[in-house]
Write a structure and sequence with these properties.
By secondary structure, the protein is an alpha+beta fold. Helices cover 32% and strands 11% of the residues.
Amino acid sequence: MSYIGQFLGEKDTLMKIMEKDFPELGLTQEDCIEMSWIESIVYNSGFPTDPPSPTEILLQAKSPIGKVYFKAKSDFAREPIPVLGLKGMLKKFLEEDAALMIWTPYGGKMDKIPESEIPFPHRNGTLFMIQYYRNWSDSDKRSNSHIKWIRELYSYMTPYVSSNPRQAYVNYRDLDLGRNKNNSKVNFIEAKIWGAKYFKDNFNRLVKIKTKIDPENFFRHEQSIPPLCLS
């Protein structure tokens, strides 16, 4: 198991913080790679970074890592997870090889932004976001097993994350939360099941905007926001 973290600043500054607050991790200068923002995007996406430059990689018409299948789910935490919960999470996580979790810290300036300020509500009171992720290749015949595992991990985390509703990050689109059954007709009640998880109370405001701008629901997908006139 390995860890990758991102620090916004120079590695000399990071080392001072780590030596003061987390000396038990034994981080060294050799463990750190300084890079530009665009280089970090390419690096964290798993793309090869040598010899092509980051901009050359991003401008390619075809991904250099080929076709990838994956399943992802997400959570937001508003309270610290106790040690017992973290131990159980780690045990479940290690049941699957080549799995990935991304923990994104919140707080700071974000904590001062009210939920209703913009459509994205997960700011004030949110400690961190979690993504659970597993990918596999076309030759891997265990897709059902991988999906079952990530759903079990998600279920285990239930007591430790947000609730009523259990919130989710819209850019980690999770069809387990629900989906439009018909490609053209959308039911408001059904859509609110996942809409509230992504947008909380802002979902109702987004429906009003959708109704005004796109009443015929021309722009749609499995979890699109419905116009009221088609609900």
